[in-house]
Fold this protein.
Amino acid sequence: MNHFICTTCGVQYDASAVVPEKCWICDEERQYIHPEGQSWITMERLKEGGTYKNMITCEETGLYSIKTAPDFAIGQTAYLIQDHGFNLLWDSLTYLDENTVNQLNELGGIQAIALSHPHYYSAQIEWADAFDVPIYIHEDDKEWVMRPSDRIIFWSGNSLQLNQELTLYRLGGHFKGGAVLHWRSGQNGKGVLMTGDIIQVVADRQWVSFMYSYPNLIPLPASQVEEMAHRVSDLQFDRLYNAFHRVVKEKANLAVQNSAKRYIEALQGTLFVT
């Protein structure tokens, strides 16, 4: 029995004797089946190959990025947030080895894992088992969990406070249960918002965007974007990190509000004439 991993999205599946028929995460309009066809690998083969390693980098006080090099699957970045003795892994990676576990244990380990949306579920159970911790996923995305586990806590409603300074907020959009993480005491009390790609930092780092599908360029309705921006409008955050190491370094809440306004005007045909 193997826990097969889709090589396109990096999501690990429940144990089976044969490879799954298809990847349910990839086989819908928000993702894609690779043009060369569906392929699978296992964690054992990833580690035996010796190709990959995880790079752990201090981004600022209390915040570390974790990135697999070279890129595997989607190539996202996970983050370790340290707050008053509580270490949270925000989003997950597929690749995990002993060296990564040892390095993170030197930083105080991991006390919990929280996910923004299904594209980053990756090998979340491997990570949770390695550190003996719970995983927080919004119940609206329960159907996308490909490897079930008792470690998963499906939360409900529009927010969940993990500790005094860390709170999850459901914004929806990209996925119905799409969540962001507000780190109130981050950046020396100015506040940080971790967004995965529920809110995506674009090439111009003063702006963000919102999409139903990024690889297939399917936009969200104006009403949804307006609601998402409204839900974070009262949160105090000056900086925003997405899942691809892009950062809005200052005035991030204003950037979200301005970007939502621009997005809506573009959809309504009032931003430009072409």
Notes: The CA atoms of residues 38 and 121 lie 18 Å apart.
